[in-house]
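Whiteboard transcription, Tuesday session. T.W. wrote the structure tokens on the left side:
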């Protein structure tokens, strides 16, 4: 099943910050920044602010699910 904005993270805004990403994935600050800096999760930088479209987080999860061994 593909995850979509209709069935996951419905309590988050369409564009989230790094702290929200941490909550969404249950990860620490360092891993969140690593996922962003390695472009595994695409983000938008505006000055010092990093913004992450919620769909990019979902795309990351869907991509990982397709690579998982079954």
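and on the right, the sequence the group agreed on:
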């Amino acid at each position: 099943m593909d995850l979509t904005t209709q069935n996951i993270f419905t309590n988050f805004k369409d564009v989230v910050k790094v702290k929200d990403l941490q909550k969404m994935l249950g990860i620490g600050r360092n891993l969140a920044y690593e996922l962003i800096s390695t472009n595994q999760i695409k983000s938008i930088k505006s000055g010092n602010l990093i913004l992450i479209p919620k769909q990019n987080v979902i795309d990351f999860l869907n991509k990982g699910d397709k690579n998982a061994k079954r």
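Someone added at the bottom: DSSP finds three helices and three strands in the chain.
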